[in-house]
Design brief:
This protein has one domain. Helix content is 77%, strand content 0%. Helix 1 (2-22) runs antiparallel to helix 4 (50-77). It is elongated and about 50 Å long. The chain is built from four helices and no strands. The chain is an all-alpha fold. The longest helix is centred in the last third of the chain and has 28 residues, at 50-77.
Length: 78
């Protein structure tokens, strides 16, 4: 059981690293270079972009990371 949880833990860790590296910074792209109008215009479709997908995926992976960490702590104590 410990080996399976450790493998899942490593996969989640690598996935978090990859997703965070794929995300662009807050000031990158068109919205960072043009202030004001571009942000409100492109902000409407932000839920459909890759940024929103990566953001949601990062959140879910972070939750999975915490849960797996707690499981590992209990498995290593017993």
């Amino acid at each position: 059981m410990k080996i399976v949880v450790n493998i899942i833990y490593l996969i989640i860790c690598l996935a978090i690293i990859a997703i965070v590296l794929l995300q662009s910074g807050r000031s990158a792209g068109l919205s960072g270079s043009i202030a004001g109008g571009a942000e409100t215009f492109f902000g409407k479709n932000k839920a459909r972009t890759y940024e929103a997908l990566f953001s949601k995926l990062t959140g879910w992976l972070a939750i999975a990371f915490i849960v797996i960490t707690v499981i590992l702590v209990f498995l290593l104590k017993g």
